[in-house]
Amino acid sequence: MSENATGTGTEKRIVQRGLWFEEYELGAVYEHRPGRTITEADNTLFTTQTMNTQALHLDAAYAAGTSFGERLVNSMFTLSTLVGLSVAQLTQGTIVANLGFSEISFPKPLFHGDTLYAETKIVDKRESKSRPGEGIVTLEHTARNQHGDVVAVAVRKTLVRKRPA
Hints:
The protein is α+β, with helices and mostly antiparallel strands and 165 residues long. The chain is built from four helices and seven strands, in the order βββααααββββ.
């Protein structure tokens, strides 16, 4: 049985978790599946819960008169979903904290009914100088719609636990 397996007898039970610091490989790209189809309800709920009254997200008549011709998905929802899609595969139960985000961009808009797919490239990692048993991993997240168009990119620094002894 592995260190994350539990059970009795001969059965092997695997508990889903993210990666320990040692398991991150520089340059590796993780594709997070399944994707997430974004609905009007998702966008409206997130936008109103976060007090974002931007008409581009809420007012169909207003948005129809813009160069986009329809409402856009709130970019903060796009960013949150992009990061969320990576959790099960990379950081579930192994992250200590998000240290910061940088280089965030939204090259193309996301619309109601689009499906968001995420991938993450490991761009840097180092042991923490101040926190034994932990390391800093820099992740570059990319979101694409169902057509393969990049709709969001974000670089995120995380503090991650090392494998328990």
